[in-house]
Design a protein that fits this description.
Helices cover 32% and strands 18% of the residues. It has helices at 13-22, 65-86, and strands spanning 4-8, 27-31, 52-55, 89-92. A 4-stranded parallel sheet has the order 2-1-3-4, with helices on both faces.
Amino acid sequence: MEKKIIITGGTGFLGKRLESILNKNMEVTNLSLSTGGDILRYSCFKDIKASHVIHLAAKTKGNDEDDMLKINVYGTLNALEFCKESKADLVFASSAAIRS
C-alpha cells in the first residue's frame, strides 16, 4: 500500500525539497497558502486521506506577533486535530526563528 502524506508549508524551502524526494515513492498532498491549503481553516484537511503529516507551515518573519501566534499555534492545532481524527502520525519541525 502506498503511503499518503500531507506536507503543510510544502511550498517553503524545506517543503519543496522534501516533496520532490517523497513524490517518488508516496502520494503527497501539499497544503500551503499558494496551493489553496490554509491550515487556519480545518476544512482544508477535509476529504484528505493520509497516514502521516509533516508539519512545516509557520510564520517566522514580521512584527505582527498576533498573526504569528494565530498561524503557528492554531495552524498546528488543526494539524494535530487531523492526526487525532485520522490516526495519522505527525512530524513537527521547529522553526529556526524561535524567540525567547
